[in-house]
Amino acid sequence: MQVGAVVVLGLLGLTVAAASSGAGHPSGGIVVLMVLVVVLVAVGGWWLERRRREHLAAWAHASGWTYTPRDPGLGLATLQTGTPYGQGHSRTVTEVLTGTYEGRTAVSFTYGWTTGSGKERREHRAHVVAIALPAYLPVLEVTPEGFGARVAKAFGARDLQLESAAFNAAYRVDARDARTGHAILHPRLLERLLRPDALGTSWRIEGTWLLSWASGPTSTASIAPRLGVLAAVVRGVPRHVWLDHGYDPAAR
Description:
Elements (H helix, E strand, L loop, with lengths): L2 H20 L5 H36 L2 E5 L18 E13 L2 E12 L6 E23 L2 H8 L10 H6 E5 L2 H7 L2 H7 L8 E14 L4 H17 L2 H6 L8
Helix pairs in contact: 1-2, 6-7
């Protein structure tokens, strides 16, 4: 018998027991109702979680990828240091999907963390999608303009200004190496990042990974579109930038 079925039968047994013990007491009906609510919530949560795992496994199978409930030893909890990393405590990596995209190693997963404690305790999740890079590149982060970006800039955060006024209005760019940032974000890539499928996408190059994140758990419908944007960024990196960092794409 599957573990889930055992849990369900156990909870149902508790319901019957509660009903029997409360039958002769005025408050028995309330006790039974409370137990029933607990049973329904537990069974509903178990069923939804099972359906979600089945959906992720089916998506992986159809895409030629691999699904594992947790990090299979890839070090995904420390893939980078920027957002969404480095926040809160009790950090987790779940719903891991691994495969390739345009011939490069790619991964998707749900990154979770907790802030506060007691009544202020909050659980947070972010859907992370990433492509492995063939060489280390300086940190380059591109995030949509908004209230948070304006506040950050008011406190001195970097915002590299580029040739496109439309791009400058849509995004904030944090480049540790301004020269490399300008080289990667050339006019053709700026135009690509202003297309509807890319607008609003947050991404960052850090170390040997190009990573994108969005609030909430894994959404399989967004994996391919976001990987498409990341792949466009990788393709757009000029050869001289790769050569400056020890990699020749012509030799690939």
